[in-house]
Design goal:
Blueprint: E1 2-8, E2 11-17, H1 20-27, E3 39-45, E4 48-49, H2 58-68
Antiparallel strand pairs: 1-2, 1-3, 3-4
Length: 70
């Protein structure tokens, strides 16, 4: 499970994906689930927080998982 918390209009929102593959697939759509420019407040993968993404744009998260998910 991949959980992403992000900031929109000074409000924190969250979304969950069944897997990293699901996240990458949904972001590859013509109209992605989330816009690339949203700011991420936290990312949790299978219960483990990934602090390196805090404060980054969503495109950083996407690029990491799309390149490192084999």
């Amino acid at each position: 499970m991949l959980d992403i918390h992000y900031i929109v209009n000074q409000s924190e929102k969250s979304i969950s994906f069944n897997s990293v593959d699901d996240f990458v697939m949904q972001q590859n759509r013509e109209v992605p689930t989330l816009q690339d420019f949203v700011i991420v407040s936290s990312v949790t993968l299978d219960g483990t927080e990934l602090p390196e993404f805090s404060g980054k744009r969503l495109d950083t998260v996407y690029n990491y998982f799309s390149q490192n998910n084999n």
